[in-house]
Design a protein that fits this description.
- It contains seven helices and 13 strands.
- The protein is α/β, with parallel strands linked by helices and 278 residues long.
- It folds into two domains: 197 residues, 3-Layer(aba) Sandwich (Rossmann fold); 71 residues, Roll (Methionyl-tRNA Fmet Formyltransferase, Chain A, domain 2).
- It has a seven-stranded mixed β-sheet with strand order 3-2-1-4-5-7-8, sandwiched between helices. The chain has a four-stranded antiparallel β-sheet with strand order 10-11-13-12, covered by helices on one side.
- β2, α2 and β3 form a beta-alpha-beta unit.
- α1 packs parallel to α6.
């Protein structure tokens, strides 16, 4: 079986590393062109990894570009992974390999199709989330499921710690399925298009803390959008308070206490910013 990998972020590189850790190999890799590195948050390079292992590396502005699709086809792949890549693979990419294209989504599909999976898992107060390996189709996270790895959430889970757990789960999923995937023993399980849920994308403005919120709502928001996300915030006295960490408190006042509809949050980690220009 011949495998390829498309990525431009650390999470994808971690999965590539795990493939080699379990004795696998890659026959093709694709990443963004170098000049795009400066414009993408969290961008990493695959050059050194691929050079050390003799993996042919192609760079493209878009995975759907004609030259990118031709490079994938020329590699004669059975499976192509696309992980940590914001561009949606079009029909020509999906048809470019013998078996299909694989994605990894940080929820337990069919729940949580869509965007902002880590913040939403915390905002919804879920006891667990996970990572799903699935075959891409022309829908959004709707393709057949090959395997899943569960990730429990602590009662006061934050985005940073959950992001790390999800990254570990990506590697664990690769480790657990590689032998069956390489020997073509995994059987995709179709999703029921009428089941599950779709979570919408989130914007930095969605991190605004409102006094009308309950303490529980405000606390979840702070934890859900803390680093590596933009953070929760409240505008006070002509400045913007960016809240990175907080906890419910019995205190009723103080310079680091925020009041909500049914109680207060004690701010533990914060920064001050000027208000954005209108």
């Amino acid at each position: 079986m011949r495998f390829g990998f498309v990525s431009c972020v650390q999470l994808g590189l971690a999965c590539m590393e795990e493939i080699y850790a379990v004795g696998g190999r890659l026959d093709f890799a694709l990443s963004l062109r170098d000049h795009q590195a400066r414009n993408k948050s969290g961008r990493i390079y695959l050059d050194a990894f691929c050079h050390e292992r003799g993996i042919p590396l192609t760079k493209a502005g878009n995975v759907n570009d004609a030259d990118a699709v031709e490079a994938i086809r020329a590699a004669s792949l059975d499976w192509l992974f696309i992980v940590g890549w914001s561009q949606i693979a079009g029909a020509s990419v999906l048809a470019s390999t013998k078996c299909g294209v694989l994605g990894m989504h940080p929820t337990l599909l069919p729940e949580g199709r869509g965007r902002a999976a880590i913040p939403w898992a915390i905002l919804k107060g879920l006891p667990e989330t996970g990572v799903t390996l699935f075959k891409l189709d022309q829908g959004v996270d709707t393709g057949p499921i090959l395997a899943q790895e569960r990730v429990p959430l602590d009662p006061r889970e934050g985005a940073g710690s959950l992001y790390e757990k999800v990254a570990v789960a990506h590697r664990g999923l690769i480790r657990n399925v590689w032998a069956d995937l390489a020997s073509n023993r995994l059987v995709p399980r179709p999703q029921d298009p009428s089941s599950g849920s779709t979570w919408p994308g989130r914007k930095p403005e969605d991190g605004r803390l409102e006094p009308a919120m309950t303490v529980a709502e405000a606390d979840r928001l702070v934890r859900a959008v803390t680093r590596p996300y933009p953070g929760a915030f409240m505008d006070l006295d002509g400045r913007r308070l960016r809240v990175w960490g907080a906890q419910p408190t019995e205190l009723t006042e103080g310079p680091f206490t925020l009041t909500f509809s049914d109680g207060n949050l004690h701010v533990l980690d914060y920064s001050w910013e000027p208000l954005p220009l209108e």
